[in-house]
Design brief:
189 residues; 47% helix
Length: 189
């Protein structure tokens, strides 16, 4: 797949699942405002992935109109446990580079599994994505969003309950459907 097809797949997942089902109630606004930067990282070295992370932070430093960046990895992190190791190193790198309190990382993976959860728990789909991804978020945007959202601490509980209600088969279909019709840039109604 080309980088644009990978980005299209990611955008389809974002709009058809994350936004449509309000998994992240803050995603719609940044998507509609075109405030998300998408970057495909195809190099397979850990060092290249970490360098790309710092470059993305530097890009955010100089482009305040971008609220968040999704880094999509096509060669790093095919194994979920290895990806979690990469995420831990990336989080430490942000601290070492003075970005603690400025940017926060979230991560997504096709095989995401919460600690203590079974592989087939539908709740894992809140963090399952078409590709391994780092989500670099401006901390000040999180603070601002949380101030206008009632009971944000209930979001994870709501998502767990909701995904379990949807069921594994439906969620598997939604994730698989992200790959369909990626040539179209679907817009929300």
């Amino acid at each position: 797949m080309t980088s644009q097809e990978i980005i299209n797949t990611t955008q389809n997942w974002l709009t058809s699942f994350i936004i449509t089902y309000s998994i992240c109630p803050f995603a719609r606004q940044v998507h509609e405002n075109n405030s998300i930067s998408y970057e495909v990282i195809s190099d397979d070295s850990l060092e290249s992935g970490l360098l790309a992370l710092i470059k993305a932070c530097q890009h955010l430093d100089t482009n305040p109109e971008i609220v968040t960046t999704l880094q999509i990895f096509t060669a790093i992190g095919s194994n979920f446990d290895d990806f979690l190791d990469f995420v831990a190193i990336a989080e430490q790198l942000l601290i070492d580079q003075g970005y603690e309190g400025i940017y926060q990382l979230a991560n997504f993976h096709p095989d995401y599994c919460f600690a203590g959860s079974t592989e087939n728990d539908p709740a894992n789909y809140t963090n399952r994505s078409p590709y391994p991804m780092l989500h670099i978020i401006r901390e000040d945007s999180i603070t601002a969003a949380l101030q206008s959202y009632q009971n944000p601490e209930l979001i994870p509980e709501r998502n767990i309950e909701f995904t379990r209600k949807l069921g594994l088969e439906k969620l598997q279909g939604l994730l698989a459907g992200s790959y369909l019709d990626t040539s179209l840039n679907k817009h929300l109604k």
